[in-house]
Specification:
Layout: H1 2-34, H2 39-61, E1 75-77, H3 82-92, H4 94-110, H5 112-117, H6 124-146, H7 158-177, H8 180-184, H9 186-200, H10 207-211, H11 230-257, H12 264-283, E2 289-291, H13 294-302, H14 308-321, H15 324-331, H16 335-357, H17 365-383, H18 393-399, H19 402-418
Antiparallel strand pairs: 1-2
Helix pairs in contact: 1-2, 1-3, 1-13, 1-14, 2-12, 2-14, 2-15, 3-4, 3-11, 4-11, 4-12, 6-11, 6-16, 6-17, 6-19, 7-9, 7-16, 9-16, 11-12, 11-18, 17-19
């Protein structure tokens, strides 16, 4: 009987891994390719990301004295950090990325109690606007990949367009005609199908898989000793704040599904776990991490609300992260295939943000202005990154990213318009409806 139960927990944990796997590997692939990393470096980035996702998930799963929300949450690399990491790496070098991530992690750990006390500053109008901006700012990256990726000699070729739109259509068909588990894996299945089709077209190089080893241990500071620059550090601290805002909504969603109320102390423990995941990501040269929203739907779908399942998922991720051969398979995915899948995923981020905004009272002019100005600034800076080109570099790196600019606008405008009110237009706890 015990063996049957263990197998059930393992299979449910594997389901969580499969549901978040596409999102977990997309961030290292997008960032690594934008920074022109070698195939070997890219394989390391993917494998260390999987391993760190597993460790971060374990940190969050158990409710300790100081760490862990104690809910069935799965952590993965944050989409919020994609464009800031690319900008920092391009201007200051890769080592500055990891110095800023470590600094941001320390900031989150030290300020966890403070964040838990100001959670009223993150009502649905802020969370929904921030998530919408994240999706809108990332879509251009997906579109460029659909054409073959920046710098591709075959940019916009018929083959690239056929692959990317083929993957997009295949994912849509799976969502239209499949149910349950298959539907939840539609993006991953689409990527696999697209890569197989690309292989028949001669667009896949398997040398990275052949050259990869079967086992490795994580290396501290793989890309070099981290450097600490004030501009990147401030940028990543803002990224960390946005991650906290996003995770707050997920925590309340899980709290509602699991019928397990959470308070300020629980939130502080959850924030500390995410801050520690940031620090770990910086040390092993991985990524900032946040609670993955797509796994919340899986908890609701499976009706399994114990943390044992996500502990199993964390163990599976750690195992996968120790095998570079598996990580190397992710690096052979053509950019056009990746683009077809990311357009869906980034579009779903936008949809999630719009769903969150349904809880907002738009009869109030202040809420309309918060969304209007924040989205306009976020999307505007993404479309015209040279808007702040004349500012000093340390300031420019902060405001030249659409996600950061739009998120800061949403937070500040909410303080200006709504903080003085005795009661927020919608209680923060209603953020639990975000992903349900």
């Amino acid at each position: 009987m015990g063996e049957t139960r263990r197998m059930r927990v393992f299979s449910l944990g594997l389901q969580h891994v499969l549901a978040m796997y596409a999102g977990a590997i997309l961030v290292p692939l997008i960032v690594g390719r934008a920074l022109n990393l070698t195939a070997e470096q890219l394989a390391y980035l993917v494998s260390i990301d999987l391993l760190t996702c597993g460790i971060a998930t374990l940190l969050q799963a158990r409710k300790g004295k100081y760490l862990g929300i104690g809910l069935p949450a799965v952590l993965g690399s944050s989409f919020v950090a994609v464009t800031p990491m690319i900008a920092i790496g391009s201007q200051y070098g890769v080592t500055a990325i990891y110095g800023s991530i470590i600094a941001a992690g320390i900031f989150i750990v030290l300020c966890a109690v403070f964040f838990s006390k100001i959670v009223k500053l993150f009502p649905p109008v802020v969370i929904g606007t921030v998530v919408t901006i994240i999706g809108l700012a990332l879509i251009p990256t997906g579109i460029r990949n659909m054409a073959g990726g920046v710098g591709s000699k075959e940019f916009g070729s018929l083959q690239n367009l056929a692959l990317s739109f083929g993957v997009l259509i295949f994912i849509l068909l799976l969502n239209r005609f499949s149910r349950g588990f298959i539907r939840s894996l539609s993006v991953l299945i689409g990527i696999l199908a697209g890569t197989i089709a690309a292989a028949f077209m001669g667009k896949v190089n398997f040398s990275a898989v052949q050259d990869a080893s079967w086992f490795h241990l994580p290396k501290l500071f793989y890309f070099g000793v981290p450097s600490f620059e004030i501009g990147p550090i401030i940028t990543m601290i803002i990224v960390g704040t946005v991650v906290i805002i996003e995770s707050t909504g997920v925590f309340f969603a899980l709290s509602k599904i699991c019928e397990q109320p959470i308070n300020e102390k629980d939130l502080a423990r959850g924030y500390r776990a995410e801050g520690l995941a940031f620090i770990l990501g910086g040390i092993v040269n991985a990524f900032p991490y946040n609670t993955f929203a797509q796994n919340v739907g899986l908890v609701q779908l499976s009706k399994v609300k114990t943390t044992n399942v996500v502990v199993a998922a964390g163990g599976i991720l750690i195992f996968l992260g120790l095998i570079p051969k598996i990580a190397a398979f992710a690096t052979i995915i053509p950019a056009s295939v990746l683009g077809g899948a990311t357009v869906v995923m980034f579009g779903m981020v936008v949809s999630s943000g719009i769903k969150m905004l349904q809880a907002v009272d738009f009869s109030k002019q202040s809420n309309l202005l918060i969304v209007a100005c924040s989205v306009s600034l976020g999307l505007g800076v993404t479309a015209v990154p040279d808007l702040f080109a004349q500012l000093p570099q340390s300031i420019r790196i902060i405001v030249s990213d659409g996600i950061i600019t739009g998120s800061l606008a949403a937070i500040l405008l909410n303080v200006i318009f709504n903080l003085s009110s005795k009661q927020q237009d919608v209680p923060v706890q209603q953020a639990q409806e975000i992903h349900s």
